[in-house]
Amino acid sequence: MSDPASDFAHMWEWFATHCHGYSPLYERISAAVASDPELLAGLQAVPPSGQLPPALLAAVHYLVLGEPAQPLADVYSGRSDADPGPLFLELCRARREEIMDILATRHIQTNDCGRSAVIGPAITWLAAAIDAPFALVDVGASAGLNLLCDRYRIDYGSHGTTGPADSPVAIDCRVAAGQPPIATHLPPFVARVGIDRAPIDLTDPDDARWLLACVWPDTGRLERTAASIQLARQDLPRVVAGDANATLPGVLSALPSDVVVIVVTTWAFAYFSTQDRQEFLELLDRASHRRVIAWLSAEGAGTVEALTALAPPADDAGQSDLLGAVVFEGGERRAQLLGLVQEHGAWIDWRAGPSATPTAPR
Ligand SMILES: C[S@@+](CC[C@H](N)C(=O)[O-])C[C@H]1O[C@@H](n2cnc3c(N)ncnc32)[C@H](O)[C@@H]1O
Asked: Are residues 177 and 219 in the same domain?
């Protein structure tokens, strides 16, 4: 029989390896947690979702964000190069009850505006072929930060930039290979709406702080997430609370019939059950008799079946995720792999041409 304490230690050791090369801070902290039997034993008392390493890391980050005088706050912000391991363990010991409470009530919920950097070229690719007004529907939108993808300044190095030069949100995306279509501006959206079964309320300071807490502090994403939250607060993106498949038909039918709808899922379709994935496709099939629908997805390899079949072999793709399009038209589907991408939009390896196959709007 397996020993839970040793399973937990292995999980944290694995997580330290997972962080290697991306978050040196969380790599060191995870290694320290793996060797603290008392803390590991305490974690067994929290609900299963709170037992995973990102949950404890986020809970402690949540405390640190509210207490800039914490020694760990200096390490997280890069002002101190003290060893974060002992400081983290000390904070967990001192604030055990509060941390357990956070783990019991909050769930990891990411909303990374950097993902707009991979969705942007996919939208440009579509817009080059479809001459119609677009509406944007983000399914699994969380707080809806990626509904503002056209308001961020995204820098693709020598490949160009997208978005307003004076945007307060600056995102860098490295073009690892290929020629992604980069437009100076994304096309206008006549409507934009998100759907999420548990939307984050950006007007609630605690929710916004939790969203920040879920970001790993030393990956260069904290500042841009804070800036995108500020931007979103000025003109809150509309995110409808509800299950995707139950809510999407109503959202689609409320949109003007002459628009082409861009349905986006970024690291959200992965949470759908096999049956829900099938129903989602059938729902878009049905809706495509009324109008063209383009589903743009950025998801883990293996999540979107139609793209998996088009993806390069695993040894070529490594651990990267897949960016793709499935265009639904008159009940027919056309899938196109667009690229391999990093999960927070750090890089894109473009694998398609400059534009989609032209589609006549109906
Ligand atoms: C990992 S987050 C990604 C959020 C956002 N798309 C992004 O890329 O930053 C996944 C989101 O999908 C939502 N979600 C998962 N399954 C869902 C469903 N069946 N219906 C609606 N929302 C769902 C979750 O609540 C969560 O906010």
From this structure: yes
The residue assigned the tokens 């902290």 is 29
Report if residue 271 sits inside a domain: yes
- pLDDT of the chain along its 362 residues, tens only? 567 668 899 999 999 999 999 899 999 999 999 999 999 999 988 988 889 999 999 999 999 999 999 999 999 999 999 999 999 999 999 999 999 999 999 988 889 999 999 999 999 999 999 989 999 999 999 999 999 999 999 999 999 999 999 999 999 999 999 999 999 999 999 999 999 999 999 999 999 999 999 999 999 899 999 999 999 999 999 999 999 999 999 999 999 999 999 999 999 999 999 999 999 999 999 999 999 999 999 999 999 999 998 998 776 655 689 999 999 999 999 999 999 999 999 999 999 988 887 654 44
Determine whether the shortest distance from the Cβ of 266 to ligand 1 is under 6 A: yes
Nearest C-alpha to atom 11 of ligand 1 is from which residue? 140
- Does any ligand 1 atom lie closer than 6 A to the CB of residue 243? yes
267 lines ligand 1 (CB under 6 A): yes
Q: Write the residue with the smallest CA distance to atom 12 of ligand 1.
A: 140
Whole-model pTM over 0.85? yes
Last residue of a domain, one of 82, 105, 128: 105
Per the domain annotation, does 34 fall within a domain? yes
Task: Please name the residue ranges forming H helices in the chain.
Answer: 4-19, 24-34, 37-43, 53-66, 71-76, 84-94, 96-105, 116-127, 205-213, 222-234, 244-253, 274-287, 305-308, 314-317
- What is the distance in A from the centroid of ligand 1 to the CA of 109? 8
Residue nearest to ligand 1 atom 9, measured at CA: 111
Question: 123 and 261 share a domain?
Answer: yes
